[in-house]
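chain below, 481 aa
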Amino acid sequence: MTSRNEELYQKSWQERQDFAERMQPIIGQLYRNFGVEVAVYGRPLVNASAIDIIKAHKSVGIHEESKLRLRESFPFLEALSKMDLHAANIDIGKLAYRYLFLGEANDLSVEQFLEKELAPLKQQDVAEPQDVVLYGFGRIGRILARLLIERTGPMANLRLRAIVIRPGKDGDLEKRASLLRRDSIHGAFNGSITVDEEENAIKANGAFIKVIYAKSPSDIDYTEYGINNALVVDNTGIWSDEDGLGQHLKSKGVAKVLLTAPAKGDIKNVVYGVNHNDILAEDKIISAASCTTNAITPVLKAINDKYGIKNGHVETVHSYTNDQNLIDNYHKSPRRGRSGPLNMVITSTGAAKAVSKALPELKGLLTGNAIRVPTPNVSMAIMNLNLKTTTDRDALNDYLRGVSLESNLREQVDYTASTEIVSTDLVGSRFAGVVDSQATIVDEDRAVLYVWYDNEFGYSCQVVKVMHKMAGVDVLSLPKA
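prediction:
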């Protein structure tokens, strides 16, 4: 016989599932049709399963005194679906909590409250759609393609029009589509992918993506493909200076270039959330820096703003990459010739020094090194910092938790209090870095912080944000911090 408690639990669970399943199509439509990314306390709900939506609501109880039930947040999502919106990140969890528990309703209806909180959207101009070309289709290129295809729709600000790869053999097009369709780390593509041999294109969830074969940028006239004023995202790593990347600008149909690696010379290295406002309309070439620089710079900024940093050392425990060998073989760099899946490999990283390009106040204060380890994705930065003021572990963790929830860096910095989390749990994280609070060490003016990051997916999410900025699209995060 079923007990009363069992019956109540089963009924409660069924209610949560029902609401989560009703939320899914609304979340998808808001994302595709308006570019609105819905979240609950920083947990993205785009393409989330019903269980993920339930878990996101459950996480509210970790941060707040009261729980937030799905039946309480659903009216806010439903009201959003009836509003005139454009690109934004909207946290319905925080909106609902403020309305229901923090006394911010002020006798307003849900619809009136949302109109007030989302008023900044009305003040923004809607930018023209930006044609995007992915130059190179490796690990980062394919993840960027997935992220851009997610947003395919009539109100998409970034439209993936083409990918450029080196000339291949027969069957190359299907091979490229297959690599986009299946990924050993990030799983199967969420949708439908077909190949159009006649048009030499990949069709994916409504996106029609031309596949252009070329040996160099000078071989391409993008206007022949109906592509104009394009933003070219260079994922190849072949060029990192103005002369090399400037080749793209000589191709017809190209307006701007974004490098997904650290740049040399005077090219701006941008970490979104920290110095993205340095991007000017007249900038033609921008770098999105490295995955490690993106992971550590937001946390370092938060720490420096609150406590000040005298100096420090950053050690990166980084998954192996395509730059390393599967088995021992020749490599031009020291140690990298040894088998990546079998060895921990000490190597260099410029990430610590590169921080100063995005955060000049830390110039000369940080050293860095890296250890490549036998995992295919998700890395960790260990930051040993000497602070200008003293603190303790609880105070520092509480501050970083607040940064992850209510600061202007909340889309870059995530926070976990789990005592069981391991690297594979972070695969697919959309944050630049995730502070592991349980590993934090503080001794007065010395702090050691452990920051996880998905060096592929999390970094690619940062790149897309830079792409929006270069396209003249400021994607607001609401409600405001």
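The chain has three domains: 4-122, 130-261, 292-456. Residues 4-122 form one domain.
thats it, cya
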